[in-house]
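Why do we bother with a discrete structure alphabet at all? Because it lets us treat a fold like text: something you can write down, compare, and reason about line by line. To make this less abstract, here is a complete entry for Anti-sigma regulatory factor (Ser/Thr protein kinase). Read it the way you would read a sentence in a foreign language you are learning: slowly, and without expecting to understand everything at once.
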Amino acid sequence: MPYAPSSVAVARQCLSSDLQEWGVYESAIDDAVLVVSELLSNALRHAHPLPSGQIKVAWRWTDGHVEVAVSDGGAATEPRAGRAPLSSLGGRGLGIVEYLADRWGVRHEGEITTVWAIVTTLNHKANGQELGGRIGGRYAGNGHLGNGHQGNGHRPVAEAALPEHI
């Protein structure tokens, strides 16, 4: 995806559309969309683009969970949830992610940093079975998910062969 604020709206819409198509409950869609929005917004605000000049957003839905990941060119500081003062205009993004996601963390591979999160969908439909001929998953943009460091004592989004999306 382009390393631009407009990518947040595009990623939100694409993720929402995919999760609706895959039969995920609306409340879980809202949570997953907010999580990807916060991760992508943080990357755009605090990190550098990937070597390609873009940013990568990926997701998949399997076994009652939606896994999302945002990969960028890294930042001077490590992503971490904090407590912003009430008067602050920002600083709540990863706190929101921490609240909505079951697990989240950070991986590093060379110059690439990936922040990932897993949100439970508790869906009565399919739960990891094929929908429309495939298990749900997408890459939104170019780049690399990477692997390596796990942050916050959680497990990273599993590596997956996700199809190219945007």
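What the structure line is telling us, in plain words: The chain has one domain: 6-140. The longest strand covers residues 112-120.
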